[in-house]
Amino acid sequence: MDGDSSLKTGSEVEPAKEKQWQLEKRIKEQHMKRKSRYLPFSIQPMPYERQRLAEPMTDEDRFLRKQWLKDQILSHKEPRHVEGLKPKNIFKRIYGYPADLMYKAFIPVVGEIPAAVGRIIIPRILLTFGVLYYWYYCIKYSPNDWTRGKGWYLYSTRPKAYTIDEYPAEKDHDDFFDKGFKRRTCLKDGKTSFVSE
């Protein structure tokens, strides 16, 4: 009995590491079984022409073959698209509502597949153009200059200085945070209510 005490129980034994080929075999088997205990198999009776011609078919074989071929014909209601199987939150429904209306209107005109492709591509193109137009409008008509306190501020990099004489360039004291004030075309006379001649 003393020799048995040195043996480890099942809970104490460390599991052996799985080898690469074992892991690949297990993953391949799981993929083939498709979340089932058993491998998929075909229920088609006599799938190959050679099987049907090698020995004569009985009436029962003909009936099974005819029934199987009849079952392959889909009804006009198939495939069924059940909305409840793919629920969308309220934001996706609001965002996709115009695209859904366009999709339903295009189905009778161009067909289901081109309408589905258009439902994906056209809203994205329109959204991209809308964002680019809004960006262009803000930059052109609402810049951050001396006349307003908000807007889009655009700036460029400093000019390159190739010699020591060009850098550091002397700047005027009022260049800092100018925001286009020196380039203004109005209010240049400097007369205000406090300055009179």
UniProtKB/TrEMBL annotation:
Residues 1-22 are annotated as: Disordered. GO terms for cellular component: mitochondrion. It holds the Pfam family NDUF_B6. It comes from the Eukaryota. InterPro entries: NADH_DH_b-subcmplx_su6 (IPR019174). One of its GO terms (biological process) is mitochondrial electron transport, NADH to ubiquinone. This is NADH dehydrogenase [ubiquinone] 1 beta subcomplex subunit 6.
